Structure formats: C-alpha cells, structure tokens
Amino acid sequence: MGPYAIKTLGLAIKAGKHQVIKNLDLTIAREECLVFLGTNKSGKTTLLKALSGKILPDQGSLIIQGREYKSISSNLLPGIELVPQENPMNREKTLAELFNTKTDSLKLSDHQKKELVNNSLDFFNLHHDTTTSLKKLSPEKQNKASIALALLSRPEILLIDQPTQGLSAEAKKKLWPLLNKLKGKLTLILATSDWEEAFILADRIALLSQGKLLALGTPAEIKRDLFSIETFEVKSDFIPENVLKAMVDRFPRVIETTEGVEIMGDELKIEEIEEFFQEHGVKVKEINIKQPSLEALFQRLRLKER
After folding, report:
1. In whole angstroms, what is the distance from residue 24 CA to residue 153 CA?
2. Residue 84, domain member (yes or no)
3. Distance between CA atoms of 57 and 68, rounded to whole angstroms?
4. What is the pTM (predicted TM-score) of this model?
5. What strands lie across the sheet with 59-64, from one edge to the other?
6. What tens digit of pLDDT does each residue of 23-38 get?
7. What is the residue range of 263's domain?
8. Nearest CA among 9, 7, 23, 27 for reference residue 214
9. How many CB atoms lie within 10 A of CB 97?
10. Is the separation of the CB atoms in 58 and 13 below 8 Å?
11. Which of 100, 129, 154 is the last residue of a domain?
C-alpha cells in the first residue's frame, strides 16, 4: 500500500470553464497532519472533496491508500470521513439520535457501539448534551459534534473543512488541543484560512492560492519563507525630508504614513531601525511589527515565483 495515505500527480479540477485546482503534485504521509492554508476561493473545499473521493479530477491521478481512483461514488471512499464546512446533519435531532443513526451503520455489537459512543462523548466533553438538539448547541459544540460523529466510523483518513470557522478566539483555543490529540492516530487533513490555526496544528502546511500550490513545508519552513520580510510601523511626530531620503537609501522599502513611516526589509531587525533614528536625531514614539494579512503573505510568495 505504500508509506503514504494520499498521492496526487498533475491533479486538475474544473468548475465549468474555471480551473479550480491546477496541476497539483502532492504526497500526504500516513498519520500526518497536513493543513491546506488559503484565502476564500483558493480551492481548499474542492480539493478536500476530491481527496475524499466525492468528486473526480478532470486530469491527473488520485491515489488513496495505494489505490488509484478513476470513478466516484455518492458515498465517501472506505476508511475516509469528511467533515464539510456546511454540515448536512439533521439539526432537529438530538446528539443521541445522531450518534445512534451513525453507529447503526457500523458492523459492531451493541456493547462495542455503546463503548465507542461513550469514548467519543468523553473525548469532546459532550456527555451532558446528548438530549439537546444540534441546532440548540453552541457553535463550538456543534463543531465538536460534527467531528465526533465522523470519528465513530474509526476512519484512517479524516478531512475537516474549516474546523473552527465562526468560533470565537476562546472557542478556537478549546478545540485546537483536541485536534492536536488526534495527530498520530490517523491521517488528518484540514483546510483553513486561519494562519494561526495552521501553524498550531500542522505537521506540514500547504499554501493554496487560486488553485495552485505555492509552498509546502513544516510550520518552521513556511514561517521562514513568509516572514523573512518584516514590516515595521514607525510612529513619529516629525521626520525631516533629509532623514526620509536617508531612509530610502538605507532600507529596501519605505512608505510614508499619517503617523510616520512603514519600513520593510528582508530579515530586518528593530534594533537597526532604532539605531538609524538615533543617529539622525529623530524622536520616535513607538515601533511596531505590522502583522501582514494572509492575502499579503500570498502576494509575497507569488512575487517570489516571478
């Protein structure tokens, strides 16, 4: 079966005339946590559907658990569970009803089913919510329930689309440790537009933009590539023209702002900026590192490709 869970070769997917996924070569190791990180319409959701066997690529090869798939089914491929962004579960049903429906499809004894459900409820701390309908649960518990239900079939590969979308920062931080506990027990594939989530959970991050794989690596490798260019916000009441000119000569890129300047540079350090202003006798109120948006990070990578 090979050491990998999923492998794609020249994978391409269209939606009408639009190319959603472009010539994707990717190998996902067994028991790896791979996170697809991208902005909206980057192709993340389409790719998860393809990797779960829900849709067939227009070109290229899709090999899952050592078997190449050239046809699709209305059901997921064996050993795979997909938790979609918009969950199709009946929101009127209670958790107990949803769990029973799921386990009824499994070839297990009643004792095994009960043990499986109890373990899942314990893991996600949902024991006190079994008589509550899905629609009445908090967004955090709805997300937990969706993942818990997917795990009941004991999949070898679990794919989750936007696991914490719509959750508060506090709720996200409660769910991330649970997802981390799943790592190493199965192949975990996530899609998110939250860069913090990706860096916390991933063994490797795949950066997707406009259907194209821009970069692939460990969180440390991706951070090195993305954040080697720092942007510093310098706030000052007054910067003379001659100092501005000296800045342009000294630093790779300088932009005037209403409160001072922004200075950008490859592996630029805050000490260098402080020293520059001290040398030129300019009083600085504060210097902050500006956190770039996800789209800005992708723009950097696209520029590097040219």
Report:
1. 29
2. no
3. 12
4. 0.78
5. 18-29, 4-15, 59-64, 67-68
6. 999 999 999 999 999 9
7. 228-305
8. 23
9. 15
10. yes
11. 154
